[in-house]
Amino acid sequence: MSEKILEKKVRKTLIVLLFFGWALGNLDRYLMNYAVVYIGKDLSLSATETGLILSSFFLGYALMQLPGGLLADKFGAKRILLIAVILWSIFTGLTAVAWTLSVMVVIRFLFGIGEGGFQPSASKIISTSFPVNERSKAMSIMLTSSGIMAMLVPIISAVLLVTIGWRAFFVIAGSLGVMIAFLYWKYVPKDEIAKESVKGPQVKAILGILFKKPLMWSLVVSYFTIYAVNWGLNSWMPKYLSDVRGLDLVSIGWLQMIPGAIQIIAMLVFGYLIDKLDLKVNKFIGAICALVLAGFLFLMFNAESIALFITYQSIVTLLLTFVMLLLPSFVLKRIPSDYAGTAMGMANTGGQLAGFVTPTLIGFMVDSFNGSYNAAMWLLVVFSVICVGAILTISPKGQGNKEAEHE
């Protein structure tokens, strides 16, 4: 399908639009990690209940990954992208009116369902619109918005949550989503390429192909373990720094800009390098990164000073970023574009299930050990070690992707 790759100008427009869409989704996700400090007080929540709110989004998000990919492959990425943004905008706005734990959990779950179709659809667009040797770079540019949000949200939250409150902010975020949806409707090209895939393998055939690929199951485990570390850290970092290190929200915001800035630079650099290096080489680099990650997680949680803590956190961020950028490259470069959306949805299901399990599990551990985060630290270390083995089982060889053979 490389002969149908879009013109360079159109590709640039697409990646800009995907960048802003992914930025908005991450704005809401990261802000919730800070907003729960206030939500927990307003709703009188325990650590376990707070973790449940953080996890409910990921359950809906995980459940929608595979269906979202199938729908993108079947009906076109633009349609699913539009539906995803519209739905998540609605439920982001509705977060502002939640008055009990149960209502909040349901709304966040439905928000996850809404956003669940975004990444598979975006991956489908990248797979069908960009040359093979540009796909990791394109993905890294889109994902860079996540790093920018990780850097900006601490400051945004410190200002807005104190001034206008968490309810007003979610109304604003929902309104921004409506604007993004309009831009997608107007400027994302019609799904000419995607329509061809409707004539290709049907749902059962696509799933049958993917379920039989050892590559896909290795990716599912790799995604689960690395994202367990990622979302375990992101969801609990503000509360950990507040409870254990005694920092106020403003101080946390400024300090978290350091690893956030490092992540932005790392995403752009690593996306370029992954495209330049052979996937076999990248695989071993990824395994080494996951192994070293385990060591630096231990050092970070046991750091004697805040300065040392942030230094180790920055290194952890670098290692996490490489692995998280590497994993989708196996889908984008080794899975035929006809069902790249479904493949990305299947792989990312593992990552988002981790996002569901880990925050709640950490909250339970903190409650069980009287506010201690030591058990949570060891949980993340173990996930990192398991990730090493999962990455090493990935076969980087092309599996039916003729485009990859001519890379």
UniProtKB/TrEMBL annotation:
Gene3D superfamilies: MFS general substrate transporter like domains. Its main location: membrane. This is MFS transporter. CDD domains: MFS_ExuT_GudP_like. It comes from the Bacteria. It is found in: Cell membrane. PROSITE patterns: MFS (PS50850). PANTHER family: FI19708P1-RELATED, SOLUTE CARRIER FAMILY 17. Keywords: Membrane, Transmembrane, Transmembrane helix, Transport. Residues 14-399 form the Major facilitator superfamily (MFS) profile domain. Pfam families: MFS_1 (PF07690). Signal peptide: none annotated. InterPro entries: MFS, MFS_dom, MFS_Na/Anion_cotransporter, MFS_trans_sf. One of its GO terms (molecular function) is transmembrane transporter activity. GO terms for cellular component: plasma membrane. It is a multi-pass membrane protein. The chain crosses the membrane at residues 12-32, 52-72, 79-99, 105-126, 138-162, 168-185, 214-233, 253-274, 281-300, 306-327, 339-364, 376-394.
